[in-house]
Amino acid sequence: MTGTDSRPQVDPALVRAAQRGDPIALGDLMDLLAPYVGRICGPIARQDGPDATQETLIVVLRNIGQLRDHAALFGWVRAIAVREAVRVAARAKRLSGDPLEEVAGGADQQLATDVGDVLARLSPEHRAVLVLRDLEGVDETTAGAVLAVPPGTVRSRLHRARQSFRKVWES
């Protein structure tokens, strides 16, 4: 699954109305974005995913007026979601929690549990790079921009994250 598969269609008029402060438009936009944000925050922040989702939506709500390119809405929201999820997970400093139910879509609950257990052992930074590259399908440059690190750092984190994932998975 790539990130484009999980994005709802958002009418640019809705975004413009939300930017003008229309409370109904703001509510509708948040309702559309919440599941997308949850799918990003959940695997990174784990049991604190709902908190990270809420924090992300608050930041989006407060800053929607700063968005200049309506076509960039999902990239902008994704960057905020990853940043907030890493921040919330680092603040909590706990890695146990619910498996990746939303990511797996309930298709194979045991697999979701196993993957969740392995991801729980990774740092929030490693989970973030795995989510961006392997679940969202973004390239290294975009992932670097979202994580505020150079593409080379994305490559090295991704390599280490995948190595750690494989090591735990195979043990």
TrEMBL record:
Organism superkingdom: Bacteria
Gene3D superfamilies documented for this protein: 1.10.1740.10, Winged helix-like DNA-binding domain superfamily/Winged helix DNA-binding domain
GO molecular function terms noted in the UniProt entry: DNA binding; sigma factor activity
Keyword Transcription regulation listed: yes
Keywords (A to Z) from UniProt: Sigma factor, Transcription, Transcription regulation
Example of a GO biological process term: DNA-templated transcription initiation
Keyword Transcription regulation among record annotations: yes
Domain RNA polymerase sigma factor 70 region 4 type: 116-163
Alphabetical list of Pfam families matching this protein: Sigma70_r4_2 (PF08281)
PANTHER family membership: RNA POLYMERASE ECF-TYPE SIGMA FACTO (PTHR43133), RNA POLYMERASE SIGMA FACTOR (PTHR43133:SF51)
Family listed: Belongs to the sigma-70 factor family. ECF subfamily.
The name this protein goes by in its record: RNA polymerase sigma24 factor
Source organism per UniProt: Kitasatospora indigofera
